[in-house]
Specification:
0% helix; 129 residues; four-stranded antiparallel beta sheet; seven-stranded mixed beta sheet
């Protein structure tokens, strides 16, 4: 599985930005997630979506502001980011967990970066005040 993230950029605090991740290659029943990594910090979980697209998960930091969605027909996963804050500044990565618990429905370790098997190259989001 290959992933290609895009859509990062420079945005003022309070603004919005939409990230996209194109997924290619063989595989099924995998969870797609977004993580981010700020300078000097570890990669942290942002959001994840199950194979079906029914189950979505968010970190407390972004809940209510970000929305993850999946378009299986287009093999893409999106992250709509609203009400952005300077602390959202980071490189954002999309990842694929090829062996999620219960297909990602009803929990699992979707929030752990070490559970993901493939990663995209990252896209930089910079939020200025």
């Amino acid at each position: 599985v290959q992933l290609q993230a895009s859509g990062g950029g420079l945005v003022q605090a309070g603004g919005s930005l939409s990230l996209s991740c194109a997924v290619s290659g063989r595989g099924s029943n995998y969870v797609l997630g977004w993580f981010r990594q700020a300078p000097g910090k570890e990669r942290e979980f942002v959001a994840a979506v199950s194979w079906s697209g029914i189950s979505t998960y968010y970190s407390d930091n972004v809940k209510g502001r970000f929305t993850i969605s999946r378009d299986s027909a287009k093999n893409r996963v999106y992250l709509q980011m609203n009400s952005l804050k300077p602390e959202d500044t980071a490189v954002y990565y999309c990842g694929a967990d090829m062996h999620p618990y219960a297909g990602g429905e009803g929990g699992g370790s979707y929030y752990r970066a070490d559970e993901y098997d493939f990663w995209g190259q990252g896209t930089l989001v910079t939020v200025f005040s």
